Amino acid sequence: MMSSDAVWYWLLAGAALMLAELVIPGGIVVFLGAACVVVAGALWTGIVHGWVQSLTLWFISSIVLLLSFRQVTQRMLGGDSHVDNTDEELDIYNQRAEVKEAIGPGEKTGRITFQGADWPALGDGSVIPAGTAVRIICRENIALVVEPLQDGE
């Protein structure tokens, strides 16, 4: 049987990690603490001797607990698992904006106001005067490509 001090160290480390789960949510730290308790039990029963075997058992049991039970606990406890759109261009496509500085003719850049900010804008080659409502078609580098809205839109 191993020294009772080592058993207490592992138990205290396990309790500290499991309590840390309250501060650091995510469902991972609690399994690291549970692995500490497994090591403390193995030391107490004499299955494991020494620090090398203790750390090896902790590492292996941490991985086994994480891979085995993390999905189960997330399913039981729920949590935030939504996936946001990571493509910014899809968020701006087909949105309305207002021309702040005339766009065109040709490739002449103007400015639009979109989401409270001024953006450089390109048109379809025709002149789009200031104050016109436009629709964003796409983005070309940092400039937004727009087209004027029809009267009914």
Q: Can you tell me about this structure?
A:
This protein has 153 residues and is an alpha+beta fold. The protein has four helices and five strands, in the order ααααβββββ. Strands 1-2-3-5-4 form a five-stranded mixed β-barrel. A hairpin with a 2-residue loop joins β4 and β5 (143-148). It is rod-shaped, with a radius of gyration of 30 Å.
- Fraction of helical residues: 40-55%
Main-sheet strand order equals: 1-2-3-5-4
Rg on CA atoms, Å = 30 Å
Q: What's the helix count?
A: 4
Strand content range? 15-25%
Give a count of the beta strands, DSSP E runs of length 2 or more.
Answer: 5
How would you state the average pLDDT, rounded? 84
Instruction: Give the biggest beta sheet.
Output: 5 strands, mixed, barrel
What is the helix/strand order?
Answer: HHHHEEEEE
Gap from first CA to last CA: 81 Å
Poorly predicted parts: none
Structural class: alpha+beta
Describe the global form: rod-shaped
